[in-house]
């Protein structure tokens, strides 16, 4: 599954695309967009959930901010969930605030040894409608709605797992956040309307170039002028210092454990905000380094903390995952899924009566399943040479030749063993054809093989249909890319294609998908 975490902050919005296969979670890309029609169209083309992204739907997750949501924690000396729910109903019925029309409250339960902690997430109808409308202006719909605070909890739980008590400072574009986090839970939070935009505007007002400056240059100009103690830069810095000091004071006065915290995490614009350590006494703590993720640096990860956290909340799908869009606000896609689940449940009884009829076909089911597993295993193994996966390096004729021979040998053995159709040996022909297309001359970022169709109990000799897909990063040599695309589209090798080769052009890469019969 693919999950898009999205957060809108002023005139910009950022997105993070996560993929989840089994328990493996991977960041596919991180992007920032300015709110204009061109960028919105680009995002729609790439991520429109009504289309497909790498043959999979994309679920969009957004989050309510602290000024849009009411959070209250209640503890009950009970561990039975049914008793806790009854006690909660009694508690809510005794307070008029929970009876007001147009207010929604979503409970989340966390059981301990001798008590259960209930977190109530409340919001008004107007707040949710405003949030959904804001997301719709970007041309997409939000299917899952969490909170910004939950996003930070998920983020630090994933990228700072070994840390327990610390502060987190997030410098946003227009809105910034200051948190105290204990055991990966937000205990105290403060948001304020000073962000990186104010810093850029201050540099411009002081008659300095702010456009086309890198982060290091912006930081150098800003902190040099702060020492002069005059101008717009000094004013913004004074406001920033005041807000952070106020937040820090509030936290240590209202949270006992906050006094013991000696570390801090910087997110949002971490390359800039880390330099504030020497200027703001209230955050003079040891800096926590985040865990890197594949090709993404800690600064890149920190810059997209909210978006990554929102996507993680959906990807982890555990008892702490929030879905605030319920009742009237439940997305149409979620309603359709609920109807599908109901339909499946009602058909279980019918399926049970038919199981007897299909019992005699178990032999073929086992054979076809085992065969598919063997081919999938062989595919993974044969693409490893000397510790390097073929999909991570440029293809060479030698590597492809070894892969073909290994796969042919397996196909020959399996054909002798199983009384089913021949294995998906057409994959070998695809490899040979791609070698003739000089694929090794290009930067191939991923390569995948998948069995789409194979023997069934009712059709044990049904042919295999396989799908081969790969992504090529485009470079400056557009002529070579165009020549390759022409070969893929028009050359007719002795391969039984099920459908024409699909080539999709995206910014920075081309995505190629082909389906063939054995």
Could you characterize the architecture of this molecule?
The chain is α+β, with helices and mostly antiparallel strands. The chain has 15 helices and 19 strands. A hairpin with a 4-residue loop joins strand 6 and strand 7. The longest helix has 27 residues, at 332-358.
Helix fraction bin: 40-55%
Q: Can you count the beta strands?
A: 19
Order the strands across the largest sheet as they lie in space.
Answer: 3-2-1-4-8
> Which radius of gyration do the C-alpha atoms yield?
28 Å
Terminal residue distance: 28 Å
Number of helices: 15
Secondary-structure map:
Layout: E1 2-9, E2 12-21, E3 24-34, H1 37-47, E4 58-64, E5 70-76, H2 81-93, E6 103-111, E7 116-124, H3 125-136, E8 144-147, H4 148-159, E9 165-170, E10 176-182, E11 185-192, H5 196-205, H6 215-226, H7 231-254, E12 263-267, H8 270-273, E13 286-287, H9 298-303, H10 305-316, H11 332-358, H12 362-382, E14 384-385, E15 388-389, H13 397-417, H14 426-436, E16 443-453, E17 465-473, H15 478-490, E18 502-506, E19 509-517
Helix pairs in contact: 4-10, 5-7, 12-13, 13-14
């Amino acid at each position: 599954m693919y999950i898009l975490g999205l957060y809108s902050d002023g005139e910009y919005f950022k997105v993070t695309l996560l993929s989840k296969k089994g328990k493996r979670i991977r960041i596919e890309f991180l992007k920032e967009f300015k709110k204009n029609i061109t960028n919105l169209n680009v995002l729609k083309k790439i991520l429109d959930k009504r289309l497909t992204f790498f043959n999979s739907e994309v679920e969009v997750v957004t989050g309510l901010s602290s000024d849009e949501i009411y959070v209250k924690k209640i503890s009950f000396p009970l561990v039975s969930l049914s008793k806790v729910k009854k006690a909660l109903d009694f508690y809510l019925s005794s307070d008029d605030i929970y009876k007001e029309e147009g207010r929604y409250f979503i409970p989340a339960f966390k059981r301990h040894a001798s008590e259960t902690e209930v977190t109530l997430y409340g919001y008004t109808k107007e707040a949710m409608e405003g949030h959904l409308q804001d997301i719709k202006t970007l041309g997409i719909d939000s299917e899952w709605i969490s909170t910004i605070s939950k996003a930070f909890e998920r983020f630090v739980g994933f990228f700072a797992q070994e840390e327990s008590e610390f502060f987190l400072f997030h410098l946003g574009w227009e809105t910034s956040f200051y948190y105290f986090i204990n055991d990966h839970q937000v205990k105290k939070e403060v948001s304020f309307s000073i962000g990186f935009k104010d810093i850029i505007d201050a540099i411009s007002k002081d008659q300095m170039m702010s456009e086309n400056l890198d982060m290091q240059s912006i930081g150098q100009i800003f902190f040099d002028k702060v020492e002069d103690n005059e101008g717009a830069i000094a004013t913004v810095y004074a406001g920033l210092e005041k807000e952070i000091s106020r937040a820090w004071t509030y936290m240590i006065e209202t949270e006992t454990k906050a006094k013991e915290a000696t570390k801090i995490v910087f997110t949002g614009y971490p390359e800039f905000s880390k330099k504030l350590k020497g200027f703001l006494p209230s955050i003079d703590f040891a800096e926590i380094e985040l865990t890197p993720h594949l090709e993404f640096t800690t600064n890149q990860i920190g810059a997209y903390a909210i978006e990554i956290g929102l996507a993680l909340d959906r990807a982890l799908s555990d008892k702490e995952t929030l879905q605030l869009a319920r009742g009237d606000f439940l997305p149409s896609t979620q309603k359709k899924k609920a109807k599908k689940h109901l339909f499946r449940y009602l058909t279980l009884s019918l399926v049970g009566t038919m199981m007897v009829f299909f019992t005699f076909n178990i032999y073929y089911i086992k054979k076809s399943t085992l065969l598919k597993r063997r081919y999938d295993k062989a595919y993974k193994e044969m693409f490893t040479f000397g510790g390097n996966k073929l999909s991570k390096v440029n293809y060479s004729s030698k590597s492809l030749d070894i892969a073909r021979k290994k796969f042919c040998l397996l196909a020959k053995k399996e054909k002798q063993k199983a009384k089913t159709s021949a294995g998906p040996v057409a994959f070998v022909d695809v490899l040979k054809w791609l070698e003739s297309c000089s694929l090794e001359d290009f930067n191939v970022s991923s390569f995948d093989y998948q069995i789409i169709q194979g023997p069934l109990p009712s059709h044990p000799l049904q042919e295999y249909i396989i799908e081969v897909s790969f992504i090529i990063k485009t470079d400056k040599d557009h002529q070579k890319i165009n020549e390759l695309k022409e070969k893929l589209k028009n050359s007719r090798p002795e391969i039984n294609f099920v459908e024409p080769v699909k080539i999709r052009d995206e910014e920075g890469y081309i995505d190629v998908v082909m389906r063939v019969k054995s």
